[in-house]
Amino acid sequence: MKIVFYGAGNMASAIFIGMIENRVVEPSDIYLTSRSMQEKIMFFKEKLGVNVSYDDQELLKDADYVILASKPQSFPAVAERIRPYLEPKTKVVSVMAGTQIKTIRRELKTENPIARIMPNTNAMVRHSVNGISYSENFTDRDELIELMESFGTTVTVGEDEMHNITAATGSGSAFLYYIYEMYAESLMELGFDEEEAMFLTRNLVIGAGKMVEDSELSFSDLRKNITSKHGTTEAGLNALDGEGLKKILITTLNAAASRSEELSQDEEE
Ligand SMILES: NC(=O)C1=CN([C@@H]2O[C@H](COP(=O)(O)OP(=O)(O)OC[C@H]3O[C@@H](n4cnc5c(N)ncnc54)[C@H](O)[C@@H]3O)[C@@H](O)[C@H]2O)C=CC1
Ligand SMILES: O=C(O)[C@@H]1CCC=N1
Predict the structure, then answer these.
(1) From CA 159, how far away is CA 165, in angstroms rounded?
(2) What's the rounded Cα separation, in Å, for the pair 50 and 42?
(3) CATH architecture of the domain with residue range 3-165
(4) What is the ipTM of this complex?
(5) Looking at domain 172-258, which of 2.40.50.140, 1.20.1050.40, 1.10.10.350, 1.10.3730.10 is its CATH number?
């Protein structure tokens, strides 16, 4: 198998590290390239044993998959590199938020099968949620799904649903991290020093995550098990509801999904 990544940043590295650690590919199956010779990419070569090249012809020769893992704004430059050497057998897989299949087809000037995936950086710990949608001619889907399930779970969606998946799970962990960040800062307001606030928050989050993983209870039942009548938790939850937490989250998710739609419209102009 030959899998070529254009881009070796946060998302690409979470994917290829996930695939290698879970042994669905050999490090020698992975080929990386980036915009410039970067220390980071050489680190991956030395640490993991993956291939690194800046020769597009060599990279794309006999490739089974090419993974588009740059920012959407860099895609025209990436497409220029790929276009001359893309072989008919190579399946194109994009992780770029908001870049539509028809745009990828147009920029690459190709009829090759194209899939869009929307993973998240939890791929590093095998817990990415991967939205996936395909061009009609992407018929051989099982192999791609197997590759993706090595670093998480896969949900097949229509391309128009990608905006919501991008908001919900592509960006979603950043929203949760931000809440943890704000929680730690709020503990400092309560009187803990920074080290204590980070220690307490980190262990709280790890413990809650493990409870979600191990327990069969719903989020709501887990919460209710902590909430005594007229107790401290109830007082805190009432305050949280009073501030309109759900409304804040709906606004957050709508903003992210709308930005994904905007990105897909920008490219049509
Ligand atoms: N970071 C995340 O959590 C997620 C990111 N994505 C998508 O993944 C893509 C990459 O995001 P990140 O990894 O966070 O960005 P990043 O900035 O960490 O990495 C971007 C990579 O693209 C490379 N690149 C730029 N121009 C290039 C060119 N002309 N030729 C070859 N490589 C080139 C850069 O050298 C770099 O390695 C974005 O399109 C984003 O929408 C999707 C899901 C989650
Ligand atoms: O912020 C972004 O645009 C990318 C897409 C999903 C997560 N990160």
Answers:
(1) 10
(2) 9
(3) 3-Layer(aba) Sandwich (3.40)
(4) 0.98
(5) 1.10.3730.10
Q: Say if residue 269's pLDDT is above 90.
A: no
* Substitution site in 122, 171, 252 for ligand 2 pocket (most atoms within 8 Å of beta carbon): 171
Closest by CA position to 31, among listed 40, 22, 18, 44: 44
How many angstroms does the Cα of residue 52 sit away from the middle of ligand 1?
Answer: 16
Helix or strand (DSSP H, E) at 63? none
What confidence score (pLDDT) does residue 37 get?
A: 67
Distance, CA 254 to ligand 1 centroid (Å)? 23
Q: Which tens digit of pLDDT belongs to each residue from 6-46?
A: 999 999 999 999 999 988 999 999 999 999 768 889 999 99
Per domain, the residue ranges of the chain are 3-165, 172-258
